[in-house]
Specification:
Blueprint lengths: L1 H25 L4 E2 L9 E3 L13 H11 L3 H6 L1 H7 L5 H8 E6 L8 E8 L1 E5 L8 E4 L6 E4 L11 E7 L2 E3 L4 H7 L5 E5 L2 H10 L1 E6 L4 E9 L7 H7 L10 H10 L4 H5 L6 E6 L16 E4 L9 E8 L2 E12 L8 E8 L1 H9 L1 E11 L6
Parallel strand pairs: 4-17, 5-11, 14-16
Antiparallel strand pairs: 1-2, 2-3, 3-18, 4-18, 5-10, 6-10, 7-8, 8-9, 11-12, 12-13, 14-17, 15-16, 15-18
Length: 374
């Protein structure tokens, strides 16, 4: 009888243990909201759950975080972390003690987000217009008006209204197609030899120009005409020129070069037009910091604060990418919470990888454990 009581007691204990294991195993992980992006759903995890964290270059990450902290925007969202980072001895211990990873959940409810890539293109150009260099790269038009909506509607702080004055009315600025017809009231930064290269410069946002006198200069995004970005790859699929699975920077360029008579038709599908200014350094993102290959990403600032530290994991055609990156840029085509555009540097190798990069993405944001206004 005593033996049966022991067996019954053990069964009861085992049942309770299984219940507790099920309850806590199925319990939701802690969630957190961002003050600057309250619609973003974050789920707390540990560094051990990040696939390649143990192989991360912690010293490099700390150095890049310290560099990011030179930006006033980063100091505003990481005030205490930036201060502590200046006196760190053990980079790994600092990162694991100061921050916790929170997985960013898709705003669309999808299992994965999307990782793409961009690069710093090279263009040939001249300060003088000629038969060899006929295509202008414009500075910001003098009649382009930009309205910061946050001054009136704080909830619209990530939105700007762009247009031009027509009498006492603010009307949409010229589209890409109308700009040529109307004639822009803008200075020309330089003239390039390729309309296709000029278009891809707009997509990338910055580039390096080799001038006909063998000097060179950096140029970068200064403003845009306010029209929504539309991908010409999508248009080429719609007209049957390419299959969806074939679309890449390389195949788009090949089609455009093979069909010069339809070049304007396709380019004008994207009514958005970018204007440029001269820069003192290489590719620089919206944060104002020079971008670091494979460490800088463009994000949608409606969901992810510009300047935040992230961790991404994606299986690409050229291998797995799992490491810390920094949200230092934005882009018209970057829409959604689990969405990132990875800067891959300059040159042919960067172009080759960026042009074909399109991979399922998991994304985490590294938030300070001590409460800070982010």
């Amino acid at each position: 009888m005593q033996y049966l009581d022991i067996i019954s007691t053990m069964k009861l204990i085992l049942s309770i243990c299984l219940f507790l294991l099920f309850f806590y195993g199925c319990a939701k992980k802690p969630e957190r909201k961002l003050q600057t992006a309250p619609q973003t759903v974050l789920v707390k995890e540990s560094f051990n759950e990040l696939k390649n964290w143990k192989n991360e270059n912690y010293t490099e990450v700390l150095s890049l975080f310290q560099q990011s902290c030179t930006s006033s925007k980063v100091q505003k969202i990481y005030p205490k972390s930036c201060q502590k980072a200046q006196e760190v001895v053990d980079a790994k211990a600092f990162l694991e003690t100061e921050f916790s990873p929170y997985q960013i959940k898709s705003d669309a409810g999808a299992e994965f987000g999307l990782l793409t890539g961009y690069y710093e293109p090279f263009l040939r150009a001249s300060f003088e217009k000629s038969e060899a260099y006929p295509y202008p790269i414009y500075k910001k038009p003098k009649d382009l008006v930009t309205v910061e909506l946050s001054s009136i509607y704080p909830e619209l702080k990530h939105y700007r209204l762009r247009g031009r004055l027509e009498g006492d009315r603010l009307v949409p600025y010229y589209t890409r197609a109308k700009s040529k017809e109307s004639g822009l009231d803008a200075e020309v930064l330089c003239y390039t030899d390729s309309k296709i290269d000029r278009f891809f410069l707009e997509i990338q946002g910055s580039g390096r120009v080799l001038l006909d006198d063998n000097s060179s200069m950096y140029i970068g995004f200064e403003n845009q005409n306010g029209h929504k970005y539309r991908a010409i790859g999508k248009y080429l699929v719609q007209i049957g020129a390419l299959k969806l699975e074939e679309v890449s920077l390389q195949t788009i360029r090949e089609w455009l070069e093979a069909n010069p008579s339809r070049l304007d038709e396709v380019l004008n599908y994207n009514a958005s037009m970018v204007f440029f200014g001269q820069r003192e350094q290489g590719a620089t993102g919206a944060l104002g910091i020079e971008l670091t290959p494979k460490r800088s990403v463009a994000i949608d600032r409606r969901f992810i604060p510009l300047g935040s530290m992230l961790y991404l994991d994606a299986q690409t055609h050229s291998g797995e990418i799992s490491n810390v990156v920094f949200a230092q840029d934005t882009g018209g085509a970057i829409k959604g919470s689990v969405r990132a555009d990875l800067f891959l540097g300059s040159g042919e190798d960067a172009l080759e990888i960026a042009g074909r990069l399109k991979a399922p993405l998991n994304l985490w944001i590294l938030l300070p454990n001590e409460e800070q206004e982010i």
